[in-house]
Write a structure and sequence with these properties.
- This is Transcriptional activator SPT7.
- Residues 42-110 form the Bromo domain.
- One of its GO terms (biological process) is chromatin organization.
- The protein is mainly α and 198 residues long.
- Helix content is 60%, strand content 0%.
- It has 2 domains: 28-121, Bromodomain-like (Histone Acetyltransferase, Chain A, Up-down Bundle); 146-197.
- The chain has 8 helices and no strands.
- The chain is elongated, with a radius of gyration of 20 Å.
- The two termini are 38 Å apart.
Length: 198
């Protein structure tokens, strides 16, 4: 009996299959890239003023002037809910825009300018979502507003089906990470809800 090819990668299969590639991109690749971008931005010392929400103690009139407050922590929570890279970028731009509008002083404007420049000239191009081999930019805007839960479950089913059909050796480390991420989220959710998983 001929042996199965061991160099086939489940991730390669999913990324080359037009039916699954948008789900893989949207629910795994894009969120990972957004996390990388955000984490790299947080390395700048100027980012500290944008890490968390502005409190009333810090700026009593801030929420009267700024109608859509946003910060890195809020963006971090929204990763996985964005429907496109542009939505993520718009939220980053809103941080700087809010800073210019409120104008708390020269240091804050300097921080906003520095971070805006970092996004534009350093971090985003270096971690561009379209830089991945075999990942076309079209796939980063998935049509419709499908439920994240439904699509993650679909991706999980596809991975499990392929592993069952082709043997475990087809799965690369990256594929196992994807499956592990998907399963760990389910387990954590079940634990939070106090559901018996037996």
């Amino acid at each position: 009996m001929p042996q199965k090819k061991k160099n086939n990668s489940l991730l390669d299969f999913l990324s080359q299959n037009d039916n699954y590639k948008p789900y893989l991109d949207k629910y795994y690749i894009i969120p990972k890239k957004m996390n990388n971008i955000l984490n790299n931005l947080k390395l700048y010392k100027e980012s500290t003023v944008f890490l968390n929400k502005v409190t009333k103690k810090e700026a009593p009139d801030y929420h009267k002037i700024i109608k859509k407050p946003i910060d890195f922590a809020t963006i971090q929570k929204k990763i996985g809910k964005y429907y496109s890279y542009n939505e993520f970028k718009e939220d980053l731009d809103l941080i700087w825009s809010n800073c210019y509008t409120y104008n708390a002083g020269p240091y804050y404007i300097y921080c906003a300018d520095t971070m805006k420049k970092a996004v534009r000239t350093q971090e985003i191009p270096r971690l561009s979502l379209s830089q991945d081999v075999d990942y076309e930019p079209y796939s980063f805007e998935v049509e419709g507003r499908e439920s994240v839960k439904d699509k993650r479950n679909e991706l999980k089913r596809v991975i499990v089906k392929i592993i069952k059909e082709n043997g475990f050796e087809i799965a690369t480390k990256k594929c196992i990470e994807i499956l592990s991420d998907l399963l760990s989220q389910k387990i954590l959710r079940e634990l939070r809800n106090g559901v018996n998983m037996e």
